[in-house]
């Protein structure tokens, strides 16, 4: 994967100011195209990006020969699985057997979309980029298998409105590729910071964005599954009820709660809201990356997310694939649960970090599940509405006190309002 040496020495340094989120998005996008760093990626954008060409891609058929299996290198093998270094399209088109995969558990790059507008046009572009993967997923999945895609939403730069790209992706997968939406899940990260700060903290016209959508899809309406594999502990009130008995009666909703509710099933069925904090900042993976001066993957998901779907939808010995492997969280979870697995990743640097999850021993899954999270009821604070008027301009300008501080005109330059996608 080594690129040819640059003809001209690249010795000049230019500072580019990025927010933390922009930097992360750039890094992920750079890696997704096989570039080692942001400079290389910006050079690529500058030299090559031609949106007309991108839109013409829509009409082009995927050439399977562009993705030969020999472009994949085995990076690491374990008892149950393997990390492949290279483009996952090579695996999907030319290495995996058709109808061989029980679960595709993945989180694709979100940062590929053009930063300029991130509107519907770009949502279309994201879908176009995704098409070959959709095609490949359909080919390699078994009829009994599932496709689970964790995908974060995005804000349009400069305005407090959302891109539709992840919804468009879902619609494309269902309407054009014939996948069935088994159930959408929402991964709530309780420790997520209140972002985007401009709209949430400064202008106060939006609330904290704290969930990722997780699309659970399948080739048939009936992929294998069993929710008894993923039960959660009973609530205190349910425990009390199981201990002390329950008098069957009608609920206010009119539902007849029968005596069957007295039965202890070992736990309750979880909702499709998965509360998992993504706070791990120390641990074997991070220690290894810091010690070896390797970039820590900026967009990892927590192990409990793949664990939930792997337990729910696969059996030991089944094949789990993550085509956007990153730091191979899916792989290490599958290894622990004795599923066969394959993770593909373009960036060698991320894989050098991922190694620490398997070498010298396989990192075990966290035993401690932490306390369950609760969500406080909103509107719990008494408010005199006269003292808290609505922002009639919908947040088009900053609050006066901040305007004065910043010495800005009433309606600031739009470019100053850029919100990271
Ligand atoms: C959102 S990250 C996945 C992070 C991962 N779930 C984890 O927890 O570490 C997406 C990854 O997909 C990789 N990627 C993008 N396009 C790819 C491709 N065609 N083949 C393989 N990997 C790809 C990127 O390099 C990036 O690391």
UniProtKB/TrEMBL annotation:
Q: Is the keyword S-adenosyl-L-methionine assigned to this protein?
A: yes
Locate the compositionally biased regions of type Basic and acidic residues. Answer: 400-421
Q: Which InterPro entries does the record cross-reference, listed alphabetically?
A: DNA_methylase_N4/N6 (IPR002941), MeTrfase_CN4_CS (IPR017985), RM_Methyltransferase (IPR001091), SAM-dependent_MTases_sf (IPR029063)
Q: Which PROSITE patterns match?
A: N4_MTASE
Q: Which reaction does it catalyse?
A: a 2'-deoxycytidine in DNA + S-adenosyl-L-methionine = an N(4)-methyl-2'-deoxycytidine in DNA + S-adenosyl-L-homocysteine + H(+); a 2'-deoxyadenosine in DNA + S-adenosyl-L-methionine = an N(6)-methyl-2'-deoxyadenosine in DNA + S-adenosyl-L-homocysteine + H(+)
Provide the residue span(s) of the region labelled Disordered: 386-421
Q: Which GO terms describe its biological process?
A: DNA restriction-modification system; methylation
Q: What is its EC number?
A: 2.1.1.-
DNA methylase N-4/N-6 domain segment(s)? 101-351
Gene Ontology molecular-function annotations? DNA binding; N-methyltransferase activity; site-specific DNA-methyltransferase (adenine-specific) activity; site-specific DNA-methyltransferase (cytosine-N4-specific) activity
Answer whether the UniProt record assigns the keyword Methyltransferase to this protein: yes
- Keywords of the record: DNA-binding, Methyltransferase, Restriction system, S-adenosyl-L-methionine, Transferase
Q: Which family does it belong to?
A: Belongs to the N(4)/N(6)-methyltransferase family. N(4) subfamily.
Task: Write the protein's name.
Answer: Methyltransferase
Give the classification, highest ranks. Bacteria, Pseudomonadati, Pseudomonadota, Alphaproteobacteria, Rhodospirillales
């Amino acid at each position: 994967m080594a690129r040819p040496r640059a003809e001209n020495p690249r010795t000049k340094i230019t500072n580019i100011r990025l927010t933390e989120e922009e930097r992360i998005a750039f890094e992920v996008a750079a890696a997704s195209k096989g570039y080692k760093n942001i400079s290389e990626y910006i050079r690529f954008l500058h030299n090559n990006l031609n949106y007309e060409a991108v839109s013409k891609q829509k009409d082009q058929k995927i050439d399977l020969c562009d993705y030969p299996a020999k472009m994949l290198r085995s990076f690491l093998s374990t008892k149950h699985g393997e990390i492949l270094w290279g483009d996952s399209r090579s695996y999907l088109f030319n290495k995996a057997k058709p109808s061989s995969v029980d679960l595709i558990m993945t989180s694709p790059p979100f940062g590929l979309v053009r930063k300029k507008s991130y509107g519907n046009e770009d949502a279309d572009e994201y879908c176009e980029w995704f098409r070959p993967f959709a095609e490949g997923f359909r080919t390699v999945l078994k009829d009994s298998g599932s496709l689970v895609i964790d995908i974060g939403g995005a804000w349009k730069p400069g305005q407090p409105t959302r891109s539709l790209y992840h919804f468009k992706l879902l619609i494309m997968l269902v309407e054009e590729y014939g996948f069935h939406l088994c159930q959408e899940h929402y991964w709530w990260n309780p420790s997520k910071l209140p972002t985007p700060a401009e709209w949430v903290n400064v202008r106060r016209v939006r609330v904290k964005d704290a969930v990722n959508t997780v699309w659970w899809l399948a080739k048939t309406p009936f992929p294998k599954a069993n929710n008894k594999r993923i039960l959660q502990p009973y609530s205190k009130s349910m425990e009390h009820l199981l201990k002390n008995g329950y008098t069957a009666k009608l609920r206010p909703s009119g539902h007849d709660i029968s005596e069957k509710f007295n039965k202890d099933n070992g736990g309750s069925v979880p909702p499709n809201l998965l509360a998992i904090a993504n706070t791990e900042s120390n641990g074997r993976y991070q220690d290894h990356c810091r010690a070896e001066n390797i970039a820590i993957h900026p967009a990892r998901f927590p192990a409990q997310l793949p664990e939930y779907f792997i337990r729910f939808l696969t059996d030991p010995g089944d094949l789990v694939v993550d085509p956007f492997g990153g730091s191979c969280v899916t792989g290490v979870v599958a290894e622990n649960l004795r599923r066969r697995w394959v993770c593909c990743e373009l960036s060698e640097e991320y894989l050098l970090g991922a190694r620490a999850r398997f070498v010298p021993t396989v990192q075990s899954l966290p035993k401690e599940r932490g306390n369950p999270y609760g969500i406080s009821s909103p509107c719990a604070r008494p408010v005199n509405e006269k003292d808290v008027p609505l922002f009639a301009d919908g947040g088009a300008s900053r609050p006066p006190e901040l305007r004065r501080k910043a010495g800005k005109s009433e309606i600031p330059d739009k470019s100053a309002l850029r919100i990271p996608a």
